[in-house]
Specification:
It contains three helices and no strands. It is mostly helical. Helix 1 crosses helix 3. The two termini are 18 Å apart.
Amino acid sequence: SRAGAAAPETLRAYRADLSCFRAWCAQEGRAASVPAAPDTVGAYLAALAPRSRMATLRRRLAALARAHRT
């Protein structure tokens, strides 16, 4: 497989994660554009932390990182 290629399920999860990020940004009155401001990403993860598992936070961050690379 190609370097950087992701399974369809992973890409589907990343799309859902980006949708959640955009919805959170809209709710918070923040710009949902990519590249996202570092303080926006930090605030998003901090808002999720109390109710999310570490694996979920890592995947959400991975989704944002991938969006920044494409």
